[in-house]
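INPUT
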Amino acid sequence: TVGAVAYDSKGNLAAATSTGGMTNKQFGRVGDVPIIGSGTFANHIAAISATGWGEQIMRNVSANTIANYMEFKEASLDEAMDFILNERLDPGDAGFVAVDHQGNISMKMNTTGMFRASLNSNGDRTVMIWEDE
Amino acid sequence: VDWAIALHGGAGTISQDLPDSVKQEYYEGLEQALRTGELILRDGGSALDAVEHVVRSLEDNPRFNAGRGAVFTKEGKHELDAAIMDGSTLGAGALTGLTTVKNPISLARKVMTDSPHILFSGEGAETYADETDVERVDNDHFHTERRYEQWQRAQEEARAITPEESIHDWIKDTKFG
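OUTPUT
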């Protein structure tokens, strides 16, 4: 799975995700990617793209939950990501990249790795695979 | 912060023992996709344009499980899914089970902007593509030898599952993006 989220100079947020699914998947199996609110979501609060075990991401309506947690709990993007990864999903289930309405970026996973990268207009740049490198 | 972008190329069990040459290919793919988004956003482009073109870059990179380089289904084919969402309007477009669209994310954007619907599936998604100018390819376009070998191993492992072993355990151990 691949995905991207962005915050532009006019303050707009967008999210996009694309995938080939899971290896050896059965006829008609659909994962989280095309399910708006599960693998892909954007509103006025945040834009989120997910990757991982699709069935688990769907059960927890994960991308939408991150945005809702921010909106209704007045939480930060990092706090919302920690909630879904630690309180709802199980270890090894998923990873997310997200950006909020102030341009804050968060990229977190509870898997051993996630291919990821980020950049903002201040020049803050990250290109990583594992948690610690 | 005037603009910001983040991207991923899948998550899962990724061995730290990857050969340096393979690691380098992944890093270069991520850098290339990041550069694509940077050029759009730095020049005042929209978040929607940025995420579409970043994902296209990753779809065209055979290292990642999307577009060319997508994994194989049980039947030995490739079925692609994609979705895009505009946070400023709640506009959304999505497709599942595409087999001949080179860059599914661009068709998802057309679903969002040109149709009154959000999600098309399977044959309907292909028919929707027929009504657009998106680039089409044979399903073999998505084939890579690495994914083919993964698929062959996955088939052998699936055949080895015992009745006592839950399919969910197997999926959990093999998921990748």
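end of record. Chain B has six helices and four strands.
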